[in-house]
Amino acid sequence: MSDKPYYEQHVFICMNQREDGRACCGEQGAEAAQKHAKKRIKELNLNGQGKIRINQAGCLDRCDEGPVLVIYPQGTWYTYVDTQDIDDIIDTHLVGGTIVDRLKI
């Protein structure tokens, strides 16, 4: 058994939908962001075992700061507005290893 994690980095994008009128990531572009991130990681050949995984997540309990995503194992939380922000998180954090301060929450 290997001591290496199955994925080097694991990204969880909150896709929560609420029926009660409270803020939720699902109504703030989360689905488009998740699909874009997954496609971009595949295009960069960074997906798969030992690399990066992009996942949908249920409520991460930070929707009032959303939309949100979290990257493990670092435990870094981000918000975003559009696919340009997602690209910045991919290029700067996932590929470059540097926190994107303007998007960090």
Q: Can you give keywords for this protein?
A:
105 residues, alpha+beta, Glutaredoxin
Written description of the protein model:
- This protein is of the alpha+beta class.
- The chain has a single domain (9-95), classed as 3-Layer(aba) Sandwich (Glutaredoxin).
- The chain is 26% helix and 20% strand.
- It contains two helices and four strands, in the order βαβββα.
- It has helices at residues 30-43, 83-95; strands at residues 9-14, 52-57, 68-72, 76-79.
- The protein has a four-stranded mixed β-sheet, with helices on one face.
- Helix 1 (30-43) crosses helix 2.
- The mean pLDDT is 93.
What is the end-to-end distance? 35 Å
> What is the name of the CATH superfamily?
Glutaredoxin
Order of strands in the sheet with most strands:
2-1-3-4
The CATH architecture comes to 3-Layer(aba) Sandwich
What portion of the residues fall into strands of 2 or more residues? Answer: 15-25%
Q: What is the CATH top level name?
A: Alpha Beta
Structural class by SSE content: alpha+beta
Shape: globular
Number of DSSP E strands = 4
CATH topology: Glutaredoxin
Strand count, sense and barrel status of the largest sheet are: 4 strands, mixed
Briefly summarize what is shown:
The chain is an alpha+beta fold. The chain has helices at residues 30-43, 83-95; strands spanning 9-14, 52-57, 68-72, 76-79. The protein has one domain (9-95): 3-Layer(aba) Sandwich (Glutaredoxin), CATH 3.40.30.10.
Write the layout of secondary structure elements.
Blueprint: E1 9-14, H1 30-43, E2 52-57, E3 68-72, E4 76-79, H2 83-95
Helix pairs in contact: 1-2
